[in-house]
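A reminder from the course coordinator: this example appears on the midterm review sheet, so study it carefully.

Given structure:
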């Protein structure tokens, strides 16, 4: 008996640029492990980000700064084993690319070689120009990330909206154009005014993926645990919650506890 096999056409950096040209919006979500990545990929999400937000969501740290390159590679290789269709992008963690371009390239190569990921993401513009160049020269696709860049949280002290002033807005636009010129295949814009994000998206030919950047960009990204309502304390205005999984999972687990205590579980069919 033959089982109908689902046909997958893999998402590539080229197909994302084509999607922008055709006006088709790009969907992107995070994943940090095999089981979640399988669900996300099977639901036809175009891009899966192995975000350094794993530092918060998986490890319980307050910021993204503590997560290590080895830990990112562990998450990324778990995700890669589940994915058949999506493009998998991995955040290079804090401290693994800022020192110098050679360190940046070494880190990017380790991610590609040891996890099997398809691309890397780095935070910043002008400041990391030489590192981005190096990584691109090795044939590794790079996604940029501007606006609210969580790896530099201590420079700002808060997670407030970025680039509200004209000077900052101009620098962000210049950085976006620079990243495009260097050869990045896409850029994430985080928590900036919608009007500015739209202007950036219209000024460059590579896709702009927003998080808290309004509806005038080429795609959207969220942390999957936020949209499923697994995280509870994270409540920025840009988040749309589709479920309250924290509550639903809690209810299921409570029922299990009750069944064990009452000796209802396991029953005669659930034993050997
Ligand atoms: N669960 C989770 N989701 C994320 O989107 C995420 C992480 N973790 N960790 C890494 C970064 C940090 N990001 C953040 C963090 C805070 C806000 C934010 O808007 N925080 C406050 C407002 C703070 C302020 O205005 O001073 C909020 O409204 O919740 C946005 C993005 C996005 N990333
Ligand atoms: C929020 C997205 C863009 C990110 O960088 C992450 O999840 O680490
Ligand atoms: Mg990140």
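Designed residues:
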């Amino acid at each position: 008996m033959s089982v109908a096999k689902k046909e997958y056409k893999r998402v590539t950096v080229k197909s994302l640029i084509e999607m922008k040209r055709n006006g088709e919006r790009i969907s992107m979500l995070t994943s940090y492990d095999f089981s979640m990545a399988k669900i996300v990929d099977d639901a036809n999400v175009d891009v899966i980000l192995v975000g350094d937000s794993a530092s918060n969501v998986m490890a319980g740290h307050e910021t993204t700064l503590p997560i290590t390159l080895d830990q990112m590679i562990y998450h990324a290789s778990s995700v890669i084993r589940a994915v058949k269709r999506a493009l998998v992008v991995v955040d290079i963690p804090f401290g693994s690319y800022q020192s110098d371009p050679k360190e940046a390239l070494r880190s990017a190569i380790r991610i590609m070689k040891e996890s099997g990921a398809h691309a890397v993401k780095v935070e910043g513009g002008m400041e990391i120009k030489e590192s981005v160049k190096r990584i691109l020269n090795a044939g590794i696709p790079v996604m940029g990330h501007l606006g609210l860049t969580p790896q530099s949280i201590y420079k700002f002290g808060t997670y407030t909206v970025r680039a509200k002033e004209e000077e900052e807005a101009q620098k962000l636009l210049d950085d976006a154009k620079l990243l495009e010129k260097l050869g990045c295949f896409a850029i994430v814009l985080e928590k900036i005014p919608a009007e500015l994000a739209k202007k950036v998206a219209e000024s460059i030919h590579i896709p702009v993926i927003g998080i808290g950047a309004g509806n005038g960009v080429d795609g959207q990204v969220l942390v999957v645990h936020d949209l499923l309502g697994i995280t509870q304390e994270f409540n920025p205005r840009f988040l749309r919650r589709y479920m309250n999984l924290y509550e639903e999972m809690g209810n299921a687990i409570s029922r299990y506890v009750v069944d064990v205590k009452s000796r209802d579980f396991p029953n005669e069919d659930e034993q050997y």
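Residues 53, 56-57, 64, 148, 150, 158-160, 191, 223, 225-226, 231, 234-236 surround 5,10-methenyl-6,7,8-trihydrofolic acid (ligand 1) (CB under 6 Å). The longest helix spans residues 166-182.
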